[in-house]
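Researcher: Here's my situation. A collaborator sent me these components and asked whether they could plausibly form a single complex. I don't have experimental data yet, so a predicted model of the whole assembly would be a useful starting point for our discussion.
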Amino acid sequence: MLIIEYLFALIIGLMAGNFATTALHRLPRGIPIYASSANLRPRCSYCSHELKFFEYLPILSWISAKGSCNYCGHKINPLYTLLETFGALISVLCLTFFGLTDLYIIFFTFGILSLLSGSICLTNHPPIKVVTVAIIVCGMLYKTLVQHDIIHWLYGLSFCCLIVLLYVSRKKAWHLTKKEVVAIHLLLPAILWCQGWWLTLYIVFLISSCKYCKIRAVEKNYFAIGIMLMFFIALLTSFMNMEFIQVRINQSTTRSEPH
Ligand SMILES: [Zn+2]
C-alpha cells in the first residue's frame, strides 16, 4: 500500500513538474498556459517545431533525446529537467512528512508554485504576480485549516498589505526598484507561511542578506533562494508542530459532526 502511495506521489510530482516547465516558458512571455488552439501545442522553445506526445514526457523525453531537440539539435535548458525532478522530490517529501492528507495537497501545491516562481527568476525575469497570488491563496487555505479561523491571518495579512501600500504610495509615481518588488513578493506570502520567531528570523535574514551579502550568485538569485527557504521553513515547522496541528484539525472535525 505504501509503495502505491509513493508511486502515486512520484507520478503526480513528475506531472506537476512537467506542467511547471510549460508555465516557466509561457508565463514570462505572456503566452496563455492553456493550449486551446493548435498553435499553442507544446513546441521546441528554439525552433518552434511541434512536439510529439512522447517528446514532452517528463525526464524520459530528455533522456531519449540526449538533452537536445530532435529537430534543431539545440541543447534543452537543464532547468526544465531539474524542475521535473524537484517536482517529484517535493511530492515524495510531502508524502513522507504528512501522508496522503490535506496538508500533503497544500504543501505539494506550495512547493510546485515556489519552484516555478524561483525558476522564473533564475531565467532573469521578475517574479510573476499570478504565481505569488496563488502562493498567498494556498497560504490562506493552510492557515484556515490549521488555526480553524480566518480572523487571525486576515489581521496579519491586512496589516502587512497596509504597510506595503503606505510604502508604495510614498514612492514617486508608485515606481518600485527591482529589489523592492522582490521584497514584496517574498514578504506577503511569508506572513501566512512562516510563524512566530521563524517569521522574524526569515525577515531578518532577507534584510541582512539583501543589504550586506555581496556574493554575486546570491544577489542574482536572491528571490529564488528566498522563496525556497520560505517553503522549507514552512514545511519543517509544520512537521515539527504536526501533533498540535492534527489535534486542531480533529477538534474542528468533531465540532462539525452532528451529535
Ligand atoms: Zn528545436
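Model: Some features of this prediction you could bring to your collaborator: The mean pLDDT is 86. The chain has two domains: 1-100, 127-246.
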